[in-house]
Amino acid sequence: MRKITFLLFFTLNFLTAQTTYNFDWSYGTPDQQIEIEVGDTVNWTWTGSGSHNLIVTSGVETFDSGYHTAGWEFSHTFNEVGVTDYTCTPHDDMYGTVTVSSSTMSISENNNLNVRIFPNPVTSNFITIKTATIGIKNIKLYDINSRVVLNTSIDSEILNIDNVSPGVYFIQITINGQSEISKLIVR
Ligand SMILES: [Cu+2]
What we know:
By secondary structure, the protein is mostly beta strands. The protein has 1 helix and 14 strands, in the order H-E-E-E-E-E-E-E-E-E-E-E-E-E-E.
């Protein structure tokens, strides 16, 4: 039960991991192009002179910042997959496109792999990974900031973690498209 609770927490945490991207919004900021994932936010900061709005001209999302001057900030969180074009109504050299794709981090909700890792905590340079499913194991090791510190594939049950620093990690094991995440403590 403890493991399931933890998996749920981590999965949710992971799927909602959001990034905020920052743009200036002023005269001479044409053709802003950005590709983001669902749930990400784009933040525009008004700079320079003049009064500008930021309004969608076409696309899957609709928003209108209204007119503001330097120092104003406007954010929009993109929850729909697709392309959204925006502009400043009076200044046609201020425009851009936000392209939203679905999250690349789709983690299977079915944890049928029955991953067992030992020893855990790890005190040696190797861990043994047992799974119910046979196949090549694609392995990603994330630190607590969701950074990938190890990305490898193994055909056996033995993973070398010789180069991994002591700490708390999340190990994602994927076999034939099915993933399971476990906590891994390295000492
Ligand atoms: Cu403008």
